[in-house]
């Protein structure tokens, strides 16, 4: 018993250290974003701000900064992309899970094939820009990721765990296929839909590569792409300054950290509400005894 208690103490202490390693950098970023710019240059970084200031957030959320526009674009893309992805992928996966659907094995093979092999970056770029004419539109940030082979397979396996008797009873009561899926299967599939939705939302929120390839209009920049531009060039934030003196007065380091806080904030706030479904989703496909 003594050895067991010591092992528990060691495990708990290890988790506490690991949690501190993960949390301290986030606290440092938050602290810097709330610190006066001059205090950063004079005293350096501190976990507790030496001099509180909201100038960075005021500047970022003002009309003089493109970050607010990028924030709006990212929110629209994330919400629309996640909802459409769940609708299309779930309907596709449900059809593959039904035994009465013809050629479902062939289509499943094609899904797995697409999971293992792809056309490559260059054909993908040519298809979206030259043939589909999606370049420099907001649709290019949403449409290419509406279906994922991995997510379709996960959903298909989950739909197969739903008892056949439930679906058959709905059919006997006169329910159509779409009505059965919408009112019976979807409510029973909340764990997998919430888990996949969280993964997809995080992907859309963090996606900067697509904007780097296809977006040239600054009004369509996503938050992550704009953040990358800020990291590479501090002067990007000061592009709207009228004079060199005004540019020198704008927050630089604190604004970058404030942008990081704003970029991470929505995901951190959303996760606790989906945590219980996320834990259930992690056990999808696990072997149960």
UniProtKB/TrEMBL annotation:
Which segments cross the bilayer? 12-34, 68-94, 106-126, 138-159, 180-205, 225-243, 255-274
Q: Which PROSITE patterns does UniProt cross-reference here? A: ABC_TM1 (PS50928)
Q: Where does this polypeptide localize?
A: Cell membrane
Which stretches make up the ABC transmembrane type-1 domain?
Answer: 71-273
Spell out the InterPro entries in the cross-references: MetI-like, MetI-like_sf
Q: Which Pfam families match?
A: BPD_transp_1 (PF00528)
> Family per UniProt?
Belongs to the binding-protein-dependent transport system permease family.
What is the protein name for this chain?
Carbohydrate ABC transporter permease
